Amino acid sequence: MTTLNGLRIVLADDHTIVRMGFRLLIEGAGGTVVEEANSGETALSAYAEHTPEVLVMDVSMPGMGGLAALERLLARHRGARVLMLSAHEDTQIPARALQAGATGYLSKRAHPNELLKAIAAVSRGEHFIDSELAPRLAMACMGGNSNPASSLTAREFNVFVQLAHGRSVADVAATLKLSNSTVGTHLYHIKQKLNADNAAELALIAVRAGLVEA
Fold it and tell me: What is the pTM (predicted TM-score) of this model?
């Protein structure tokens, strides 16, 4: 089994049982979970306080979510090494995470030792991509991606995912620290690009693309 040799790790996931399982696995391999976080905002605070070797962060969390937190973290700490986790099967979210600067990306369905291998690799600054996801991600990058959300910019994508979860423009603006008018402008462009007329249609597109659960 892969060993982590005292690596200091911040673990961010909004499910307590999931964090508990990951903590036991990490500490059983010799790593130390210096703090746990349950949202993008608390993950940022925990990283700033502890400056761990690795931040292990779920993509889907309350508040700004993992992708927006990743973008904000790397703007403040350019050398941060982040392993993103997700239960989603699509290629859009991992592609966005890696483009935003994540060091690694792993499915929550991976074998436990894959998590340890990913953390160890990311701690060394090596890129790590889930072995089952990598071929599909490569195909998507070569033009085989039919996901309509691929046409969105990074900021539009973050706004789209937030809105698809049923949040209001005001809520999204407060969470992402944008003005209501800016979010409204993003929403207009999102609807144009996705050929959607209302929030219900946006949510349906997100569900079909595997970006949110039905």
Answer: 0.74
